[in-house]
């Protein structure tokens, strides 16, 4: 017998459920930055791949975290209701009213105006609770301490900078206050912003998951920094396409300032410099990349000059 079904003995209300596939006991934050229009969700849990079920967000609409004994449909249905004009409170109340298992759900929503609403069912496993404020809601269940959601809220309110970094600060504070009573396993960060009406996939500006790790928040912060660096590199490529070469180099330098040992960004910066006619700089950056990862030399040897100008000349300059 699946040991999770022993929970039926503790929570008879669960006998109504057809499945216990999503037992994502966890702590999370939903948040909004009115200055940028961004919405975000951050979550950590001792549950594999928590990012697959808990966080939901849509640019210009809002965000949802659905957890505890998860009903995943709170995510898309909540966003749809808010898209049709419901406030976060109205959307949440409408869905709870139709849910026979509302007592084991924990759900938070935030709408386009930054109004947050949260529900912690009376049968959620303690410690369980939430703290809502303007532009955010922090919540958790099966926690090691009742201080977790309060400390998360305090960190979010007292941290400045991009929304993603404020969310990460809140998660770190929740972990420092005790976090999930069972420990750590996975984490996720989603941030959306209205960038394009016709190409909505561009509106998901951060979408990162750590599926299984002893230190998921540490790993989430690491890959977020990589995300920032590659974002700057992408801007550099865009500047290069516009022949704004100084801005292109500055963007790549910013990227490498974030991840100074990233051999891939070094290599492509060298490629860009060669196309600018900066031969000495190109050789220097490609050499650094090859020193860190000799496989770049193999790639360079196979690149025609039409792709990487003077590729074979650079190969001869390498040590």
Explain how this protein is built.
- The protein is α+β, with helices and mostly antiparallel strands.
- It has two domains: 3-214, Aminohydrolase, N-terminal nucleophile (Ntn) domain (Glutamine Phosphoribosylpyrophosphate, subunit 1, domain 1, 4-Layer Sandwich), CATH 3.60.20.10; 229-317, Alpha Horseshoe (Serine Threonine Protein Phosphatase 5, Tetratricopeptide repeat).
- It has helices at residues 7-10, 74-83, 88-97, 148-158, 163-176, 216-241, 245-258, 263-275, 279-292, 295-302, 311-317, and strands spanning 23-24, 26-33, 38-45, 55-58, 62-69, 105-111, 116-120, 129-133, 136-140, 186-192, 204-210.
- It has a six-stranded antiparallel β-sheet with strand order 8-9-2-3-10-11, covered by helices on one side. Strands 1, 4, 5, 6 and 7 form a five-stranded antiparallel β-sheet that branches.
- α4 (148-158) packs antiparallel against α5 and α7 (245-258) packs antiparallel against α8.
- The termini are far apart.
Helix proportion of residues, in percent?
Answer: 40-55%
Question: Architecture of the largest domain, according to CATH?
Answer: 4-Layer Sandwich
Biggest sheet strand line-up: 8-9-2-3-10-11
H/I helix tally? 11
The name of the CATH topology of the largest domain is Glutamine Phosphoribosylpyrophosphate, subunit 1, domain 1
Q: Could you state the order of secondary-structure elements as H and E? A: HEEEEEHHEEEEHHEEHHHHHH
Basic shape: elongated
| Strand count | 11
Give the uncertain stretches in residue-range form: 5-9
CATH class of the largest domain: Alpha Beta
Going by CATH, the homologous superfamily of the largest domain would be Aminohydrolase, N-terminal nucleophile (Ntn) domain
Strand proportion, as a percent range, falls in 15-25%
What's the pLDDT, averaged over the residues?
92
**How many individual domains?**
2
User: How far is the N terminus from the C terminus?
Assistant: 62 Å
The main sheet comes to: 6 strands, antiparallel
Structural class: alpha+beta
Rg computed from alpha carbons, rounded to a whole number of angstroms: 23 Å
């Amino acid at each position: 017998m699946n040991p999770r079904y022993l929970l039926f003995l503790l929570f008879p209300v669960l006998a109504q459920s057809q499945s216990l596939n999503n037992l994502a006991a966890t702590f999370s934050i939903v948040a909004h930055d009115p200055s940028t229009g961004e919405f975000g969700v951050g979550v950590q849990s001792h549950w594999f791949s928590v990012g697959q079920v808990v966080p939901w967000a849509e640019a210009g609409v809002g965000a949802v975290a659905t957890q505890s004994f998860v009903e995943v449909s709170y995510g898309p249905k909540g966003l749809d209701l808010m898209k049709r004009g419901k406030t976060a409170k109205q959307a949440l109340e409408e869905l709870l009213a139709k849910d026979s298992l509302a007592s084991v759900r924990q759900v938070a929503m935030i709408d386009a105006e930054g109004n947050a609403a949260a529900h912690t069912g009376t049968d959620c496993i303690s410690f369980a609770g939430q703290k809502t404020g303007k532009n955010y809601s922090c919540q958790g269940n099966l926690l090691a301490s009742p201080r977790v959601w309060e400390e998360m809220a305090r960190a979010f309110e007292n941290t400045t900078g991009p929304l993603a970094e404020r969310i990460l600060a809140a998660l770190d504070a929740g972990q420092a206050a005790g976090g999930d009573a069972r420990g750590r396993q996975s984490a996720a960060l989603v941030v959306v912003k209205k960038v394009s009406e016709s190409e909505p996939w561009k509106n998901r500006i951060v979408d990162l998951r750590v599926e299984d790790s002893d230190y998921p928040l540490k790993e989430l912060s690491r890959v977020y920094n990589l995300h920032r660096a590659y974002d700057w590199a992408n801007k550099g490529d865009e500047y290069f396409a516009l022949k704004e070469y100084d801005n292109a180099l500055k963007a790549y330098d910013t990227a490498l300032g974030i991840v100074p040992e990233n051999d891939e960004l070094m290599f492509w910066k060298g490629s860009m410099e060669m196309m600018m006619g900066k031969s000495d700089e190109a050789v220097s950056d490609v050499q650094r990349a090859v020193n860190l990862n000799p496989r770049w030399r193999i790639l360079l040897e196979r690149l025609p000059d039409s792709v990487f100008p003077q590729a074979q000349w650079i190969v001869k300059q390498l040590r």
